[in-house]
Amino acid sequence: MQPFSYYRAETANDVVSALSGGARILAGGTTLYDLMKLDVEHPERVVDISALDLTEIRMEGETLVLGALARMSDAVEHEILRTEFPALRESLWRAASQQLRNMATLGGNLLQRTRCSYFRHGAPYACNKRQPGSGCAAVEGLNRAHALFGGSDACIAIYPGDFATALMAFDAEIDLLGPSGTRRIPLASLHREPEDNPERETNLEPDEFITAIRVPRSNAARASTYHKIRDRESYAFALVSSAVGLDLDGDIVRDARIALGGVATRPWRAGDAERLLVGRPLTEATAREAGVAAFAGASTTQHNAFKTELGARAVADALMIAKTRI
Ligand SMILES: Cc1cc2nc3c(=O)[nH]c(=O)nc-3n(C[C@H](O)[C@H](O)[C@H](O)COP(=O)(O)OP(=O)(O)OC[C@H]3O[C@@H](n4cnc5c(N)ncnc54)[C@H](O)[C@@H]3O)c2cc1C
Ligand code: SF4
């Protein structure tokens, strides 16, 4: 690990000044230090934001507001998530391990980086994300865990986070603070697809940071689930996952939310599959149709074609679980 200077910010303005001076944010450190030890990240300065008062989880009218420094484990235990946003809660407790969840923050979780092993483990493998212009070893290599949606010739790495996938289904927004004050963006605009510049992963300005996450209360968020399929039942990233929420009028679907994880270069919303359900009864047959529709247009590689059927089943199963929560 290369030497770096450490600064503990006391106020939000301290953070913005440090970022303007080229520092990197340190929150829980479970991703940043990991990547520094692997020699993937080499910040010369880090600004520790953990002293800031951004840990509160509360309702503001009809909107859930989660402070960027709330720990994953605190959100999992929170009553509002348990009763009103079960998919968000499940996405958090099905992620990482209890020790990691005790340390990791929600803001840091959103900005975790891909687990593509060529990216993390470096030479002698080419990786455009780690070293722009060097190529992509995954395209012809071991790409079982790679993306079906949103990839480019330059990069097919998935975005690995569970929480952002769940937020995607429920129209979450993100509060950002920078030198010109606060701005609010849809979570859907936070992460970028790789296109020709896979090293640019978000639409954050270099001197901005996340202060809060906002999620509107809805019937679909209340009758929701996060269904995660992985190689082993705990402490593993998603092979495929689906965040689903439902609102029914009798038997008929009034509102359906479907987002996909483990299969795309950014959190992915399956809008066509949602629209296919609205106005129809939710049955095993229509849930299956929606699952298949969610994976229409998937672009497979040599080793990951199995994810289309696995994903279709995950969506269908998630819909049937959500139906039991109405
Ligand atoms: C072994 C292991 C298994 C894991 N398994 C899973 C899993 O199954 N599912 C899953 O979703 N995640 C998983 N994770 C990822 C884990 O959830 C993240 O490492 C964690 O949430 C990051 O939060 P942090 O506070 O530690 O972030 P940090 O490491 O402090 O920061 C991460 C990144 O975000 C930036 N950052 C942090 N906070 C902010 C902010 N407020 N504004 C702007 N930038 C910020 C940092 O500069 C850094 O680039 C796993 C991690 C490990 C190590
Ligand atoms: S898929 Fe992306 S992260 Fe993985 S090797 Fe290719 S460029 Fe690097």
Classified in CATH, the superfamily of one domain is CO dehydrogenase flavoprotein, C-terminal domain
Task: Based on Cα principal axes, name the global outline.
Answer: globular
Outline the low-pLDDT stretches.
none
User: How large, in whole angstroms, is the Cα Rg?
Assistant: 19 Å
Sheet with the most strands, sense and barrel status: 5 strands, antiparallel
- What hetero molecules are in the model? flavin-adenine dinucleotide, iron/sulfur cluster
CATH architecture of one domain: 2-Layer Sandwich
Keywords: FAD, Flavoprotein, Oxidoreductase
GO molecular function: FAD binding; xanthine dehydrogenase activity
Pfam family, one: FAD_binding_5
EC number: 1.17.1.4
Overview of the molecule:
By secondary structure, this protein is an alpha+beta fold. Helix 5 runs antiparallel to helix 9. A hairpin with a 6-residue loop joins strand 11 and strand 12. The protein has a 5-stranded antiparallel sheet. The protein has a 4-stranded antiparallel sheet with strand order 9-10-11-12, with helices on both faces. It has a 3-stranded parallel sheet with strand order 1-3-2, with helices on one face. It is 30% helix and 21% strand. The longest helix is centred in the C-terminal third of the chain and has 18 residues. Among the domains are: 47 residues, 2-Layer Sandwich (Uridine Diphospho-n-acetylenolpyruvylglucosamine Reductase, domain 2), CATH 3.30.43.10; 105 residues, Enolase-like, domain 1. The site of flavin-adenine dinucleotide has 28 residues, from strand 2, helix 2, helix 6, helix 7 and strand 8. This is Xanthine dehydrogenase YagS FAD-binding subunit. It comes from Aurantimonas endophytica. Its EC number is 1.17.1.4. It is an enzyme of class 1 (oxidoreductase). Pfam families: CO_deh_flav_C, FAD_binding_5.
